[in-house]
Write a structure and sequence with these properties.
There is one protein chain. The protein is α+β, with helices and mostly antiparallel strands. It has five helices and 23 strands. A hairpin with a 2-residue loop joins β12 and β13. The longest helix has 15 residues.
Length: 368
Amino acid sequence: MRSYSIIVLLVLGVLAGRPPVHAARIKDLVDVEGVRTNQLSGYGIVLGLEGTGDGQQSLFTVQSVISMLRRRGVAITVDPKQIRVENAAAVVVTATLPAFARSGSRIDVQIASIGDAESLRGGTLVMTPLYGGDQQVYAVAQGPVSLGGGFAFGAPGAGAQSGHPTAGVIPNGALIEREVPVALATDGMLRLGLRQADVTTVRRVMLAINDYMGEGAARTLDPGTVEVTVPLGDEPVRVLAAIEGLEVVPDRAARVVVNERTGTIVIGQDVRVAPVAIAHGSLQVTVKVDFGVSQPAPFSEGETVVVPDSSLLIEEGQAERIAILEPGIDLGDLVGGLNALGVTPQDLIAVLQAIESAGALDAELVMM
């Protein structure tokens, strides 16, 4: 039987009443316009594998090895079909270029096989250019691949695998060659974008900044953006550092997140339930298969065979008592009431979906 896990996010003091409100730093709620990361990617070859690389069907690996040798001054005139690449694997190399990264700095890279290699263990990535969205080279990656403990071993009729042996990382494996210029407040304005747009939260951020810098220093452009005026002669970095530490109380939406595949349920603190009655029953179906031996009579021409003997058992559990949830109950009452029914995480997901379908759940139900 598949086991389910349940994770219910209980904010401090739920069962004792409405939980206390906690403030968050503006730094943790917003992103600064113009300050962003950039995605890099490239195509490379991992060498030095112990016979676990790509097979002959991965023609692009053979062509890549030949091209690499030619660029190194090695004349290749043999038929590509005669080249064996079991010790090489074609990979895609990806990395994230952080904001304000300078030439000469190093960043981590991720490696993923694109052929039929069995494992990248023990391999070394040869020099691989990493391109940005504008097709310019921003970094060059090279180094030994680390699988983080992943392995794959096999033999005829048996095998063992842990992790993902065809994907790995190279810590500090890429050297930055080109910088991405970032200009703060070129027009004298700092624009802060909320990571989760909300009318109430954006106004609280504006008021907090105005209380610190003075009336009129900040204004809201939309439910997700606050514009801050940098005083003449002041440095944008100093202004940004000052307002990032200010604390505001974000207004969070009532939300229930359900992952039916894993049985995980996360319920926000502001979830409320309208008056509703809940009854939950269960139906259990058990299929049991036993194997018996059918032996022919003595001196007959029959053969001894294995005969399966199946049995089917259906049990319908009695419906649990009906639970009535009073008007306006909070998260603690909701969880307590559902637990009183003795529901499993899988059943709890079904109950939450039914409550939402009945229009009694005053929150957004998000299915992952």
